[in-house]
Amino acid sequence: MAKSKGPSVRERRVARRLRKWRTDVAGIPTLEPVASQLRWSPSKLSRLENAEQIAGPAEIIALATILGVDEEERDRVVAMASRESAGWWLGYTPEIVPNALADYLETEAEASIVRNVETMLVPGLLQTSAYAETLIRAWPAPSEHAIAERLSVRQQRQARLDEDPPLPLHAIVHENALHLPIGGREVMLEQLDWLLSRAKQSKITLQVLPIKIGAYGGMGASYHIVSFDGDEAAAVYLDRLTDGQFVEEDDQVETFHRNFQRLINVALDPDASGERILEIRKGFT
Q: Where is the HTH cro/C1-type domain positioned along the sequence (predicted)?
């Protein structure tokens, strides 16, 4: 039997919000008083707060009412829970878009900003087709159809950078990634030129971590911080060899957020980063 897809990041985020309503807004540390008022079992409330059972609008409104949640917050969570996923990624097979990636693509599609750290590769949202194709072909014996499909997925993701309004992106890439000759000279020249072009967009911030800084906190870690509702960090996505992993607990997400802020301070600023990319480009001419 195929493994069923668990709750999405959005659904888990709704569940965490319900738990915060009880513990932080109403200041009720246990499940029983709330469940009793609603004539629910404590186990049902626990399932809703842990996304083991997906909360519907009626349940969210009932909880908001007895927990004293304001209407704006209540309506925002109801809208989040009611949103039906009809994303473009559903048109691809699980071989091209596995469950973990589909979950990330839904998250990225709804994000208000993405913050990305890359240590070995150009960020996926900023890769050229030739650069991305070289990476895809490096896997054992991919079919031409699979290559075309995976390139299409990459292009669909990148389209958000050109929407109105565009997706804000803050990318920090280690200088080592820009020296690796992925695809050879011509591919790298095109890729570096594309980075310089993209970096001119008002909603894209690109910084380079220079080799000369040596060791830094979180060295070797690549990750995406995906945020919603302004500047609220909702989840961190980590790429792995065969799938991906989400980090969602607030204290862990905050650790990644603090690391990103430290990297902003040790990386070259956007202008100096552009100058460094031009210097690296000269090495490929």
A: 34-74
Sequence-distant (≥ 6) Cβ neighbours of residue 85 within 8 angstroms? 8, 106
Six-digit token string for 249: 């607990």
pTM of the model: 0.84
Each residue's pLDDT tens digit, 58-112: 999 999 999 999 999 999 899 888 876 668 998 999 989 988 888 899 889 889 9
| Domain 9-82 indexed as CATH 3.30.1780.10 | no
What does the pLDDT look like over 142-185, one tens digit per residue? 899 999 999 999 999 999 999 999 999 999 999 999 999 999 99
Q: Which residue has the tokens 């087709």?
A: 129
Q: Can you say whether the dihedral through the CA atoms of 153, 155, 159, 160 is positive or negative?
A: positive
Between the alpha carbon of residue 52 and those of residues 55, 82, 88, 157, 213, the distances in Å are 9, 17, 26, 29, 45
Instruction: Determine the pLDDT at residue 224.
Output: 96
Which H/E stretch holds residue 185?
A: helix 185-198
2 has pLDDT over 50:
no
Sole residue written with tokens 């208000």: 112
**The CATH fold of domain 94-282:** Endonuclease; Chain A (3.30.870)
Closest CA to 211 of 266, 134, 144: 266
Beta-carbon contacts of residue 119 (< 8 Å; ≥ 6 apart): 173, 174, 176, 177, 209, 219, 220, 221, 222
Amino acid letter for position 100: A
74 Cα distance to chain centroid: 25
- Tokens representing 159 are 């389209």
Tokens of 271: 């202008």
